[in-house]
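Report of the visiting student (M.T.), summer placement. My assignment was to run the structure pipeline on a short list of targets and document each run. The first record concerns Concanavalin A-like lectin/glucanase domain-containing protein.
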Amino acid sequence: MKSIVAQVGLLGLFIAVAAQSATISTQNALCTQYAYASQDGYDILNNLWGMDTATSGSQCTYYYGVASGGGVVENNVKSYAYAGRQFTRPLISNVKSLPTTAIWSYFGTDIRANVAYDLFTHPDANHVNYNGEYELMIWLNRYGGVWPITESGSALETITLAGHSFDLYFGYNGDMKVYSFVVSDAAIGNFSGDILDFFNYLADNYSFPISQQYLLIDQFGSEGFTGTNATFTVSRFQAEVNI
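After the run finished, the structure tokens were exported:
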């Protein structure tokens, strides 16, 4: 079990991985752009991939601790600090279930961020895990008017999955096809569901090639744009890939 915190130059992140609690402190710092750690079947990544769009600030991800400081350029994602499940990459059509639980909270002011699952897929099982042919996102909340990637500027439809209502958006990130399920009602602070249901819905309704796509990564975290003294806490995150 591990917990992480991102000192992102705009908001802080504390993630407790698995079903245990952790004591906040500032040890085991991951402070370089893509600093990484692995523990108990989970990956922890600082992932400050958008740092070049920030005019100030810094980011560190700590095991068992968190702090934050400032940065600007409000419409650009600065980072996606996350915890992700480790697994042998399967064809999604061979997966029996992708059960997951995430319990989280956000505190602070002027927050512009989302809280989201982020999964990449590709026909090549050996493809890199930081992009894919397809990206599936499940937004459990959004702050400050941030939007998912969208071609039309409006949702394709509103549907119910995992007992919650989502607006479905589609767009491109370069050549990558991005489907985003964005919660359409109140924030889902305690989410439990089977992510395979979301893939099956896309296969049944939007020609997602489920028998040709390998699951590359299954991760949960927050894409941060801007914020003041903001702290994102995940008290429980569990994910499994059942074949």
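The first strand starts at residue 3 and ends at 6. The chain is about 5% helix and 50% strand. I thank the supervising group for their guidance throughout the placement.
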